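In this supplementary section we document a worked example of the pipeline. Step one takes a protein sequence of length 702 as its only input; no multiple sequence alignment statistics are reported here. Step two produces a three-dimensional model, which step three serialises into structure tokens for compact storage. The input and output of this example are shown verbatim.
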Amino acid sequence: MKGENHTRSVLTIVHVDYCVAENAKAHRTSRYEVSNRPSGEALLVVRRGQSFVLDLTLSRNYDPAIDNISMVFTYNGAKKSWHRSFDVTSNELHSNATSKGIWQTIVESYEGNLLKIKVTPAADAIIGKWLTEIDTKTQGFERADSFNVKNPFYVIFNPWCQEDLVYLENESERQEYVMEETGLIWQNNVNHMTSVPWSYAQFGEDILDCTLYLITNVKQVRIANRNNPIAITRNLSAAINKQNDNGVLWGNWSERKEAYSDGKFPSHWVGSQKILQQYYQTKTPVKYGQCWVFAGVLTTVCRALGLPCRPVTNYESGHDSENNSTIDVYLDQNGMRIKNMSDSWWNFHVWNEVWMKRPDLSDVYNGWQVIDATPQEAPFYLGPTSVVAVKQADLNCHYDTGFVYAEVNADKLIWKYDKSSQTSTLLYNEISSIGQNISTKAVGKWEREDITHTYKYPEKSSEERLIMYKALLKSQSRSRHYLIDGFHEVKFNLELKHDIMIGQPFSVALKMQNVSNVRWHTVSVILRVDAKTYTGRMGEPVARLDTERLIKPGQTDEVFLEVSWEKYQPRLISQGCFNISYFATVKETSLEYTNQVDFCVKKPEIVIELSNQPYVDEWLAVTARFTNPLPIALKGGKFIFTGPGLQIQHKLTHDVDAGAEAVAQFQVLPMFAGMTTMIAKFNSKELNDVNGYFNFVVQPKL
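The serialised model returned by step three reads:
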């Protein structure tokens, strides 16, 4: 062609190397399964706002004086109408010069026909898969050449980058809330707090792709919003439950065992990986989950995207269905809760916190934000809710602050409802029972950290009462007045042991003290034990005692209710929880009294032992055992073991007699050096949800 310099040829691209191993190490993404595939199939995962390098092999030696290189990064799956808005094209590259595009690119070094380019995605880049096109042009030639790189690469959030909205300053916290693959989730009740281990496996096979599928296909988040952690986390909280667009998990809180026959009982799960893999392969909701399962899976997908995330357990968690910042419970004449009128409170509820700035609010609301995937109330997603806004009762702050406030700080009001007159009398108010011992795993330790102070001021303090008054003024019921305690001549106190192993009997005692020095009092009492789900729903009655006592002035009387294993076993619900309550009437004053306490029986712990020192790529023998605490044999028992790169089921071939040990032995092959956690669970028809875990260090390969 006229005017072309035929002494040189047009520069073309022969090969592009994403330098997966080198870049993954620098970006702390080397444990992602997609980056550990066989040569040629491994895909790069990078954190936005941080540079990565590409090695280019050229058709001839590179000459910066005449050779120009341009790079086009296109968001995978974007429609043509979006290309102009979402393609990021650098200026022509010159040696040691940084381009002026949104994404920064620079020729870091070159020698002969080998060229190393450094690319820095914007700190607010869109999360997901990106495609790379490299265009070359040589001075003196009108023709240009274009090379499309076969494999895409992933861009995720970067809590190590100060310009990213999810920047987290403390390195120990980044390791815990982004990199840690296993953890603890607290359960049971406030009087007996226990933890269950959970395998997040955020770097596992299909996890990153499944997470992006939830964003792009299930929730169809607008591409323009996929760089925003506020939009991403709000949509993920919806995508984890089936109530929104056939998300990941189907919730089920039925007390009937047959209601779970077409899926897995929630306590069966030991981690997120199998749930997300099954969902990604079938594109249908997985059966079944409850709050800790929803929170465990939500932790996984958030960490897979680089979002700092942790599960949080709230004991005595309020569920305010009337949006009036109080938990109102209505009782009939027998002290039984009227279901269709009453709010509820859960023994425990698990949600998540994610760390981010809130540019939509103000800097004061930056930090931990509540998100919740458990489908409690329509529209079945929640957050992000600023924890600071909850503590200050700033109920108008986006999103869902009023609902979370009631979960952690509502006052509980117990009413007696008279059906004939359709009137309610306030019997009792508790200003400190809702929202106790708010818990999460401590940073770098397998211990509980209490974070209640981040959600509320100390109970009964002047600050806490002022905040409650502020919330009531903003709620839908602005004229709520509480009963002012007067003089009561009979005091009541429920007593029971909370350290009872399943299979053992337990007893309940109600102490009644006549504080009058002159008056006798006749007290009629209903003392009862009912099975209860951890979400507050009452199950079958277990035991009941009706009695009347005459108490002398200054004297104390006690009422006892004994409950045997044979009595409570047929009515036992999965968490082993009971509601202990009394309803008392003092005849001389016509005053009525009530209170209730939740109680859970303990379950044994699985002990895990290693027979030899763990090394990478060397078989490791493992033994797991626990003692059967029940007075009956365990039949058809099955152990489940999980951990990084580990998913094993071990069915017992024999029954485990009362008092005998259930034992499983197997071998594993560690893949990575460093601290790791093995999680164990045991289920049988007679005893389920028995847990254990073991932390150990895997040494590098010999």
